[in-house]
Design brief:
Elements: E1 7-11, H1 17-27, E2 30-35, H2 39-42, E3 52-54, H3 57-67, H4 71-90, E4 100-104, H5 109-118, E5 123-127, H6 133-146, H7 156-168, E6 171-174, H8 177-185, E7 193-195, E8 215-220, H9 229-239, E9 244-249, H10 261-264, E10 269-272, H11 277-284, E11 289-292, H12 301-308, E12 313-316, E13 331-334, H13 339-351, H14 353-370, H15 373-388
Parallel strand pairs: 1-2, 1-4, 2-3, 4-5, 5-6, 6-7, 8-9, 8-11, 9-10, 11-12, 12-13
Length: 389
């Protein structure tokens, strides 16, 4: 017999939380979604108004600073803005009416402590979309050193706070085996870590009939150090393939600008600012393969979106792509920072059109059969049931 329970979610933003809330609402177990997004935006995800508790001061501050181009100030205030959201969120939680509290890393500490102080029988679940923060900091520090960037990758206060959250949490949910491995290597018990890969909206991302005269590689997400964007740019420039182009979609990280100069004059490389979710499918369907050269991620959701649109995936082990790729069938997994290996795999799909077609079909089927948000909901719901048994 399935145990009845209620779940509250705390998220400073969006991430995949709206799909999680939507799925839990369908299952009849959502108690509340506490977010920094205003209600009218959350309601677009078909989440009922009575479940939404909005604390939008965080979004107002961040968006004002971004609009006036005060990103340097935003990075300095980020820790305090998140703390403000976290402090305000506690008053929105009804600890007597929930069985599970799901909180995003960086905004969970105070609510988890409150549960302990009140001695409530509420399971504390931490959602961490990336790797263990010490692994994340280490690999970014290595890359900053390679690029001679004189800056700390992650605020030490954020690192310390997240580590306290890892200790306070009863369970930590991550989206990939790679992310899970980084937690175990940093001393977190394997029994505490639960892997549930993400999904995508198959009504929004799907394959259209397409013909591309040019061989088009696409990469979506922020163009940044963490995404390993320079390694893909270097690989493409050195390949110099005929009738080809590279489409880089996303805003450019400030620290990366000085390193983009060798690629800005290449007519085959197109830099496209951030594209809204409802337009991304159009770009995927004008492309042939999706490449991510990430140095660190839990599971880049753009990879699932691209596969659903019939794009073979070439990605690094550190992108979480091993959850998605069947090696040599719908894509390839590459080591990080290995430009030569990346070039080799891109070239193999460029030269072999029949293999490219086979990979495309396999990628779409894999995404359709395994990575819908409905599948994600079923997996999450099943894991929550286990926690309560």
């Amino acid at each position: 017999m399935k145990k009845q329970f209620k779940v509250s979610i705390i998220v400073p933003g969006k991430f995949h939380s709206f799909y999680l809330a939507q799925g839990l609402q369908k299952k009849g177990v959502l108690h509340s979604l506490i977010t920094s997004y205003p209600k009218y935006l959350v309601k677009k995800y078909n989440i009922k108004k009575e479940f939404i508790k909005s604390i939008f001061i965080k979004e107002i501050i961040e968006r004002i600073l971004l609009k006036i181009n005060f990103t340097f100030l935003l990075s300095k205030l980020y820790f305090f803005i998140n703390n403000l959201f976290e402090n305000l969120s506690i008053s929105k939680i009804d600890f007597d009416k929930i069985n599970i509290l799901v909180a995003w890393s960086g905004s969970a500490e105070k609510s988890f402590k409150k549960i302990n102080v009140l001695k409530k029988k509420v399971i504390k679940v931490l959602e961490r979309g990336s790797t263990h923060i010490q692994f994340q900091n280490k690999i970014l520090h290595e890359e900053f050193k390679i690029l001679k960037i004189q800056k700390k990758p992650i605020d030490q206060r954020i690192i310390e706070k997240e580590i306290r959250e890892y200790k306070l949490a009863d369970y930590i949910f991550v989206p990939s085996s790679f992310a899970k491995k980084t937690f175990i290597e940093n001393g977190v018990s394997e029994n505490k870590i639960i892997k549930v890969p993400y999904g995508t909206d198959l009504n929004e991302f799907y394959l259209d009939n397409k013909y591309n005269e040019e061989f088009t590689i696409i990469s979506a997400g922020q163009i940044s150090i963490r995404k390993g964007s320079l390694y893909l740019l270097k690989a493409f420039q050195e390949l110099n393939l005929e009738k080809s182009k590279l489409l880089m979609i996303g805003n450019v990280e400030k620290e990366l600008f000085p390193h983009l100069k060798p690629y800005l004059l290449n007519p085959k490389i197109i830099f496209q600012n951030h594209v809204s979710q409802n337009r991304l499918r159009l770009f995927y369907n004008k492309s042939n393969i999706f490449v991510t050269s990430s140095l660190e991620e839990g599971l880049a959701m753009v990879q699932i979106q691209a596969m659903a649109c019939g794009l073979p995936l070439i990605c690094t082990r550190h992108s979480g792509g091993e959850e998605l790729v069947d090696e040599g069938k719908n894509g390839y997994i590459c080591p990080i920072r290995d430009t030569e290996y990346l070039k080799k795999k891109i070239l193999s799909l460029y030269k072999d059109k029949s293999q490219l077609k086979s990979f495309s079909e396999s990628a779409q089927i894999k995404a359709k059969n395994n990575f819908s948000w409905e599948n994600y909901t079923e997996n999450i719901y099943s894991e929550y049931q286990k926690l309560l048994s």
